[in-house]
Amino acid sequence: MQAEDYDEGEEVMAFPIPEEASGEGATGDVLAGNDGAYFVFRDIDLTGIRSFTAQIGTMAGVTTGGRLGLRVGGVDGELLGTFEVPIPNETSLQTYEVRLEAASGMTDLYFVFAADEPGRPFPVCFIDWILAEQ
Ligand SMILES: [Ca+2]
Fold it and tell me: How far, in Å, is the centroid of ligand 1 from the Cα of 67?
């Protein structure tokens, strides 16, 4: 799924992939969010899904690093897993993986941005795409 094709979101912003970060497999736009921002994919069937892989970008001097949490049904819903995104010392796009424990059923899947130092007016990271794997 392309992150920028989310069903609903708050305080997220789509923009073209920065030239210096355009590695292999970069597709379409990326989505950026500050602390507390989120986006949702509705009616995702988690049955049989063992992991999510996401292509996540960081930009030195811009993104703050932090966490991108996968939550079920709401911004405060059960936490399925967390993409831990480092404080960048370079601009890059990399894949990150989260493994799931016994997830199943249809759900609205929330991706929630959390900064390690809340309150800074910079995005935690940007996200290109997400892949569900069995
Ligand atoms: Ca994309």
Answer: 19
Distance 95 CA to ligand 1 centre (A): 13
Q: Global pTM? A: 0.93
Q: Which residues of 90-123 are buried (b: 16+ CB within 10 A; e: fewer)?
A: ebebeebebebeebeeebbbbbbbbbeeeeeeeb
Is residue 23 one of the residues assigned to a domain? Answer: no
Residue 93 in any domain: the answer is: yes
Give residue 17 CA to ligand 1 midpoint distance, Å: 8
Number of domains in the chain: 1
| Residue 75 DSSP symbol | T
For residue range 8-50, list pLDDT tens digits in order. Answer: 999 999 988 876 666 667 778 999 999 999 999 999 999 999 9
Q: Does residue 103 lie within any of the structural domains? A: yes
Residue 28 CA to ligand 1 centre (angstroms): 4
The tens digit of pLDDT for each residue in 75-93 reads: 999 999 999 999 988 888 8
- Alpha-carbon span 112 to 109, nearest angstrom: 10
